[in-house]
Write a structure and sequence with these properties.
The complex is a heterodimer. Chain A is of the alpha/beta class. Helix content of chain A is 36%, strand content 16%. Chain A starts with 6 loop residues before the first strand and ends in a 29-residue tail after the last strand. In chain B, the strands form two sheets. In chain B, strands 2-3-1-4 form a four-stranded antiparallel β-sheet, with helices on one face. The radius of gyration of chain B is 18 Å and the shape is elongated. Classes of the chains: A alpha/beta, B alpha+beta. The complex binds flavin-adenine dinucleotide (FAD), thiamine diphosphate (TPP) and magnesium ion.
Chain lengths: 575, 162
């Protein structure tokens, strides 16, 4: 005979479930259908609610919170417009496989389908961009559904989950019990790799003359940075990371050849093109990475480790698929490798490394470091030096994002927070807010552009309210630089609607939000400005760097070209 | 190539739209789709006919498996199987035509299940091509209405999906 359970209202169950799930922060925005929940929030202090200024900001902040911590991000919004404002953020998390749980209020059950006030079919609208979603139909199901939502969001290939809660359910009561565990017959992620496939992989690895490791976001999502590093060091192979994988392997290590793909390094892309064995680890062969599929790694046999079978052989057929979690598989593979005596030795790999060193010698990321006009790359390099590579860097989308990825060397995972798959402008500022909320004592900087920053600028207000300080580094080129670059290359410099006319005075703008603004126009002032900003502990420092508007991102592989068909900077001889 | 996929899934509202949404979002085609609860009312069984290259079918199978509501996916083409479809067809049947239609129905082992002065309603099951053949054997102007269920499939022999 168990003692009788507590009877709670749905709104209280919601809060208790979050608490029992270990959730400390909730990013949200109130409205009619979640007012019972907001009332329950008012009466407790287990879960801290951060009031954003736009629901999109809540989703990005919670998403970045998840990227930085590895814990799920949580969002609470009202029905209708509250829910639809979340869609961009949910899709952003979906494309990058980020564990996010979004609770949307819904009109009362008896009004569903009536075109009721602020009714939108949130489950229907979000279905294509969630890992799973739920409509709660009974207060008795609420706690178990919340448990399932967190379980599905965080396990296997992570992703966003939406839970739609009609208002009446938050008023109804029932006995509260939070399930200890979840068992779903229809959802059982595989963690361990298939032994037979792993043995075949080891054979192939042993035979490699020009091996290459290509690792991605999956290595970070799996918290497998240590396993990846020891695996790579043990083998002595070169390694490249995708945009989403940066930091899973130390960016300053000599075996690291930089990012690959459209704006990857010369050495990484050439090594991809010429390798004979490719070990893909938690990466999904995205088109920004592969370029022309016909010309992708033409002489390589491919091993692919991924927890999601549908990532395997989706774009490129692979020779040895290993379905499983990166951490588990790398551990098991390493154990198998340890029992082999015939792995390629440093001497065997020497010709391959010599070739890579020759490619490295091209110094594809060289730019004019002496320029008086501020080069955007220079700002990122200075930031890197001043923060000793140890800051959390969030970014928006465009050229500045690529420069951040190229010039900030990430030695640790979860420090590089950006929207890779969806490429969502507006991500950077709320993301910095989410990261700083998670790690108040860490240095956080948002590298952004003059077009991106205004897309979620309103969150400066949230930062003021909650005292969330970080540095905004606006690489202001007066253009949608990435768009301008494509127009310069592929549309004979017809800059159609990519010039940012009538930009605001960012200094005054930051000040009007109660923060600190600076405008920096000369290279000589970059370092001191960054130093000053990084020392600020209370407010956001918004530095508007007036950068060279003609600068382009190099190297570049035009869409649909092969890895060996890179364009290097025409100005390389300048430096 | 045409494939018959058999799915077991949670009998939840929304499960069907997840499957349908997957096909439209990824530009796969659905030739037919049938779904109903099994002996266990919490589980639905769906038979889905689609077509595509081996690579496409492999991706479809993987994506279906990935849906959180889907318990199991079997490609019936991978082993010997039986497929059946139910057709209800209403025909104009007057005068000497009545006899002729009746004979044709017998040949195809259909059953006349409703009769009026001017019409016959016929029930027929079989593989899709048998139903096609029956329709082709009729005079087009006699056909008033055709209702087909879409394919249901099951593996031959001892094998059972659970
Ligand atoms: C302007 C712009 C330019 C870009 N240019 C480039 C570029 O030059 N180079 C580049 O690399 N990208 C670039 N991108 C990013 C690109 O669009 C993709 O987002 C990125 O390449 C995908 O990275 P990924 O392959 O690591 O996959 P992710 O999206 O990180 O996917 C992770 C993979 O790992 C798997 N996985 C997840 N968890 C686990 C686990 N626990 N165990 C095993 N597997 C797991 C998943 O199933 C998935 O297949 C650019 C984006 C933008 C916006
Ligand atoms: C929401 C959204 N709309 C449009 C785009 C397409 N887009 C990609 S980069 C870019 C320009 C970004 O300009 P800015 O923020 O100034 O960065 P820059 O490239 O100049 O560094 C645009 C419009 C996008 N990625 N996201
Ligand atoms: Mg710009």
């Amino acid at each position: 005979m168990g003692k009788s359970k507590e009877v709670l209202r749905g709104a209280e169950i919601f809060i208790r479930a979050l608490k029992d799930e270990g959730i400390k922060h909730l990013f949200g925005y109130p409205g009619g259908s979640v007012l019972h929940i907001y009332d329950a929030l008012y009466k407790q202090d287990d879960v801290e609610h951060i009031l954003v200024r736009h629901e999109q900001g809540a989703t990005h902040a919670a998403d970045a919170y998840a990227r930085a911590t590895g814990e799920p991000g949580v969002v609470l919004v009202t029905s209708g417009p509250g829910a639809t404002n979340c869609v961009t953020g949910i899709a952003t998390a979906y494309m990058d496989s980020i564990p996010l749980v979004v609770f949307t209020g819904q009109v009362p059950t008896h009004l569903i389908g009536n075109d009721a006030f602020q009714e939108v079919d949130a489950v229907g609208v979000t279905r294509p961009c969630v890992k799973h979603n739920f409509l709660v139909k009974n207060v008795e199901d609420l706690a178990a559904t919340i448990k399932k939502a967190f379980y599905v969001a965080t396990t296997g290939r992570p992703g966003p989950v939406v839970v739609d809660i009609p208002k009446d359910i938050t008023a109804d009561s029932c006995e509260y019990e939070y399930p200890k565990s979840v068992d779903m017959r229809s959802y059982k992620p595989v963690m361990k790799g298939h032994t037979g496939q792993m043995k075949r992989a080891v054979e192939l690895i042993a035979s490699a003359k020009r091996p290459m490791i290509y690792s991605g976001g999956g290595a970070i999502l799996s918290n497998a940075d240590k396993e990846l590093t020891s695996f790579t060091r043990k083998l002595g192979f070169p390694i490249t990371n995708t945009l989403m994988g940066l930091g899973a392997y130390p960016g300053t290590d000599k075996q690291f050849v930089g990012m690959l793909g459209m704006h990857g390094t010369y050495e990484a892309n050439m090594a991809m093109h010429q390798c004979d064995v490719l070990i893909a680890i938690g990466a999904r062969f995205d088109d920004r990475v592969t370029g022309d599929l016909e010309q992708f790694c033409p002489s390589a046999k491919i091993i692919h480790i991924d927890i999601d079978p549908s990532s395997i052989s989706k774009n490129i057929p692979v020779d040895i698929p290993i379905v499983g979690d990166v951490k588990h598989v790398l551990r098991d593979l390493s154990a198998l490798l340890d029992s082999r005596k015939d792995l390629p030795t440093a001497k065997d790999l020497e010709p391959w490394w010599d070739q890579i060193k020759e490619w490295r010698g091209i110094d594809c990321l060289k730019y004019d470091r002496e320029s008086e006009i501020i080069k955007p790359q220079f700002v990122v390099e200075k930031l890197y030096e001043l923060t000793k590579g140890d800051a959390y860097i969030t970014s928006d989308v465009g050229q500045h994002q690529m420069w951040a990825a190229q010039y900030y060397k990430f030695d640790k995972p979860r420090r590089w927070i950006n929207s890779g798959g969806l490429g969502t402008m507006g991500f950077g500022l709320p993301a910095a807010m989410g990261v700083k909320k998670a790690f108040p004592d860490e240095t956080v900087a948002c590298i952004t552009g003059d077009a991106s920053i205004v897309m979620c600028l309103q969150e400066l207000s949230t930062c003021l309210q909650y005292g969330i300080p970080f540095t905004v580094i606006n690489l202001n080129n007066r253009y949608m630089g990435m768009v301008r670059q494509w127009q310069e290359f592929f549309y004979e410099s017809r800059y159609s609607h990519s010039y940012m006319e009538a930009l605001p005075d960012f200094v005054k703008l930051a000040e009007s939000y109660g923060h600190i603004g600076m405008r920096i126009e000369k290279s000589a002032d970059v370092e001191s400005a960054l130093k000053e900003a990084l020392n600020e502990k209370e407010k956001v420092v918004f530095i508007d760097f007036i950068t060279d508007e003609t600068e382009n991102v190099y190297p570049m592989i035009a869409a649909g070209k092969g890895h060996h068909e890179m364009h290097l900077s025409p100005n390389r001889e300048l430096a | 190539m045409r494939h018959i996929l058999s799915l077991l899934m949670e009998n939840e509202t929304g499960a069907l739209s997840r499957v349908a949404g997957l096909f439209s979002a990824r530009a796969y085609n659905i030739e037919s789709l049938t779904v109903a609860p099994t002996e266990d009312p919490t589980v639905s069984r769906m038979t889905l006919v689609t077509s595509g290259s081996d690579e496409v079918i492999e991706q479809i199978t993987k994506h279906l498996n990935k849906l959180v509501d889907v318990i199991k996916v079997i490609d019936l083409n991978e082993s010997r199987h039986i497929e059946r479809e139910l057709m209800l067809i209403k025909l104009q049947a007057k005068g000497k035509n009545r006899e002729e239609i009746k004979r044709l129905v017998d040949i195809f082992r259909g059953r006349i299940i409703d009769v009026t002065e001017n019409t016959y309603t016929i029930e027929m099951t079989g593989a899709g091509d048998k139903l096609d053949a029956f329709i082709n054997a009729l005079d087009e102007k006699d056909i008033l209405e055709v209702v087909r269920s879409g394919i249901s499939g099951i593996a031959r022999g001892d094998k059972a999906i659970q």
